[in-house]
Structure formats: C-alpha cells, structure tokens
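To whoever is on call:

I kicked off a structure prediction for a single chain this morning and the downstream step that reads the tokens threw a length-mismatch warning. I double-checked the sequence; it's 274 residues and nothing unusual in it as far as I can see. Pasting both halves so you can look.
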Amino acid sequence: MTLPDFLVIGAQRAGTTWLDIMLRSHGEIRMARNRKEVHFFDEHYDKGVDWYRSFFEPADGESAASRVGETTPHYLYDPRVPARVAELLPDCRLVAILRNPIDRAYSQYGHNVKSKGWTIGFEEAIEREEQLLDRGRYMDQLHRFLRLFRRDQLLVCIFEEATSEPGAAARDLGVFLEVDPERFTYSSTPANESYLPRFPRSYAAARSAGRLLRKGGLDVVVESFKKLGVPGVFGSRGGLEPMREETRARLRSHFASDRQALEDFLGRPIPLWD
C-alpha cells in the first residue's frame, strides 16, 4: 500500500510545474497519477487516506519505484498542512522551490487575471489581496514545517538558480532523494509562464469547470482536454506589462527582512534576487 515518501510543498508560482516535470522524467520516481496537485493535506483531507493512496498505486505492469511523491504548491502556505503531514508521513522528505517574492507575487497576479478574470491593477491587487505578498514570506512558512520535521528532511531550491543551472539542481535533488541524478531530464525554460487569454471570461469559466470536474474525481477528462489543446482555443493577447519600477522598489524594501532571514537560514546570499 503506497503513500508518498516526499512532497514538493511549494511555493505557488515559483517553478513547481517545472520541478514536477523533471521529477516525472526520472525512471526511479513515481508521481501522483492523473493530476499534478492532489491537494490532500489542504482541500481533501476529509476524504481519508485510502482516497489519497489511490493516486500512487502502481498501474498494471508498472515497476516498483525507489521514490513516490506529489506536488501541491499550496502546502507551504496553508498552516494546517505541516501537522497533517507529520501525522501521516513523519519520515517524508520535503522539497520547497522558492522564487524572488516580488516576481512570485506578480506571477500570481497574472495567473488570477487569466484564470479568475481579475480586472484590477497589480498595485490595487496587493492592497486588497493580502496573500499575494504573504505567500512570499518564506521563512515564516518554512518554520511551520521545521517545528515538526528535521532540517535534513527539507531541501530548499531557488527557482532562478535551478532554471539557470538545471544540472546542478538535478544533482542536488538526486542526492536529497537518493536517486541517480543523471536520469533526470530537464529544461532551463520555466513552465506555466503567464499570458493573458484573448477571451478572459470564457477562459475563467473553463478553468472553473475544470476545478469542478477534478473535485468530482474526473481528472482524466480534464487531462484529456488539455492534451487536445483546448486551452489554446482561448487565444493569447500576450503577457503582462512589466511591473512599474517604483512598485518593484517598494516591494524590494517590503521583503528585505524576509529575504535576509532566508539567506541566513541557507547560509549564503541569493544574488539572482538582486
């Protein structure tokens, strides 16, 4: 009876899709079937362990895996998750991939413009939606896990470093998960880059329908539509406009102490966040 022995816990809009693709490329690793994000420890905890386990049982004829994992980027932010994980999977390994919190917030804003039909500007959004910035206060979130898990159970990756030197990221991940790093396939191109659909209301409605299908256990239907290229039907009108420099400067000051705390924890600077 299979349960994960490692989790990619976040952060949201920080490269978890890129990391999940790399993990799925490895022959010794089995990730959750039919969906990237299982959301057990935050949204579906009441469905029980057997429901969760069903995502990891090997398919007919599938060979045994050295590691079994799943990726749900909301786990890092949700304060209920660490205790739930510690109770069910006390020995599991945790992988966090973190992005410059300013760019992470702007990417999440763009995602919400696309998928939820937001029409407000970024400056208004960060005043109205507190979690846009809260999700970038990484050490507060990591400490919630570290109160329940050993330091050696946690690997922290920096998104900008991982995508600029994916070979080094693969080696770190291989050592941490005790698998052959040479068996990872990776790209330096991030996945899930933000773009604005040409028909935003229709796109937002389709996303909402997809979420309802997943809640009903119809993941296969959603994945089939994605493979058929249905999201492309809504077109693209390009990406977001660049963030205003004055806004970036204000947020750089806003996150200064949080960044320093993270660098102290890692024992090194993060120059690619300059």
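Update from on-call: the warning came from a stale cache, not from the record. Cleared it. Sanity check on the structure: DSSP finds 13 helices and five strands in the chain.
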